[in-house]
Design a protein that fits this description.
single chain; 7-stranded mixed beta sheet; binds zinc ion; Rossmann fold; 9 helices; globular; alpha/beta
C-alpha cells in the first residue's frame, strides 16, 4: 500500500544554526513514489537541497514532516531498510579501529538510533555496558533479547554515560540543537559523543551536488558541516575527525553496483532501472566526528 505524504516542511531559517542566510543549492534526485523506512510512500511535492551561508551545512526543503517521519519509523519492520549485518563484517577496518580506541572495559555506552544493536554487540564484546535508544518497536525487542538496556526516552536524567554514539543518525534529525542539548545532559563530565554521517564536504558531493547518492534517501534531511561542529556548537568541542567509507563495500566500482542496487530498491523498481547519475565515491565520503562535552 502506498501512503500519500504531503512533504511540505520548509525552513525559514537554517534548522542547524538558526541563521536566516539560506539559499537554494540544487534540486534533489528523488520524487513521487519512493521507499521510506520499510514503507512505500508517494511524495506530493518536489524536495530541494538548501545551503546555509553561515554554518555551511545543507538541508532538505519540502521535507517529510517530523510527525509523519516518526510514525513511519515506529511502524517500520526492523532490518528491512538499513543493514543488520554484523558490525565487524560491515564497517571498514579503519572505522573499527577508530571506535575501538574509544571503548574500554566497564564504560557505559549509549547508542542512539541503535537499529538492531549491531554497534552495541561490538561495544559489549569490547567490555562496555550497553544501552540503546530506538523508535522501531521491532528493533527494541531484538536489542533487549541480546541483553542491551533500552531507554524509553532521551530525557531520562538519572543515568549518565561515558560515551554516546550516533551512527547514521544526525542526517535524520529535525532539531539538531535539541539533540545536542539532550545528549550533553546525558553525558558524564568530559563524556564523548561520536557521530558518523555522510560528509557534505566530500569530493563526490562537490562534483555531483544533489545527485550524490547520499542525498537520495528521503529520510536524510540534515547534512551538518564540520565547520558547524568547530565554530557553532556551544555544548561540545570538536576533538577529532576521521574520514572513511560508509561500509567496506562502498568503494569505486563496488560502490556503483551497490548504489544501483540500493537506488532500484529505494524506488521499488524491479525492471527499467533508473540509473544512478552521480559519481562513485572514489575517496571517503563519510565523517566520524568525535565531540567532547564542554
Ligand atoms: Zn546554518
Amino acid at each position: 500500500m502506498t501512503i500519500k505524504i504531503d512533504n511540505n516542511l520548509c525552513h525559514i531559517v537554517c534548522p542547524i544554526c538558526a541563521s536566516d542566510s539560506i539559499i537554494n543549492s540544487d534540486k534533489l534526485f528523488y520524487e513521487g513514489t519512493v521507499r521510506y523506512s520499510s514503507a512505500e510512500i508517494q511524495l506530493l511535492n518536489k524536495p530541494e537541497l538548501w545551503k546555509c551561508n553561515d554554518c555551511h551545512s545543507f538541508f532538505t526543503q519540502n521535507a517529510i514532516r517530523e510527525e509523519d517521519s516518526i510514525s513511519l519509523y515506529t511502524n517500520s519492520e526492523a532490518g528491512k531498510r538499513w543493514d543488520t549485518k554484523k558490525f565487524e563484517d560491515e564497517k571498514t577496518p579503519y572505522c573499527l579501529s577508530v571506535y575501538k580506541n574509544y571503548l574500554r572495559e566497564g564504560i557505559e555506552v549509549l547508542d542512539i538510533g541503535c537499529n538492531t544493536g549491531e554497534f552495541l554487540d561490538f561495544a559489549k564484546n569490547n567490555g562496555a555496558s550497553t544501552y540503546g535508544f530506538e523508535y522501531s518497536i521491532d528493533s527494541i525487542k531484538i536489542c533487549e533479547s541480546k541483553g542491551h538496556v533500552m531507554l524509553q526516552n532521551l530525557d531520562e536524567r538519572n543515568k549518565k554515560f561515558d560515551l554516546i554514539t550516533a551512527f547514521d543518525l544526525v542526517e535524520h534529525l529535525y532539531n539538531p540543537s535539541t539533540f545536542f542539548e539532550q545528549v550533553s545532559k546525558l553525558l558524564k563530565p568530559n563524556g564523548k559523543l561520536i557521530i558518523f554521517t555522510g560528509d557534505i564536504e566530500c569530493w563526490a558531493f562537490k562534483k555531483c551536488k544533489g545527485k550524490w547518492w547520499y542525498l537520495n534517501y528521503p529520510e536524510h534531511v540534515m547534512f551538518i558541516s564540520k565547520y558547524f561542529y568547530e565554530n557553532k556548537l556551544s555544548t561540545f568541542k570538536l576533538e577529532n575527525t576521521f574520514y572513511t567509507f560508509n561500509n567496506r563495500y562502498f568503494k569505486g566500482l563496488n560502490f556503483t553496483m551497490a548504489a544501483l542496487y540500493n537506488y532500484s530498491k529505494m524506488l521499488g523498481l524491479r525492471k527499467g532501472l533508473k540509473p544512478y547519475e552521480g559519481l562513485p565515491s572514489l575517496s571517503p565520503d563519510h565523517i566520524i566526528a568525535v565531540l567532547v562535552k564542554k
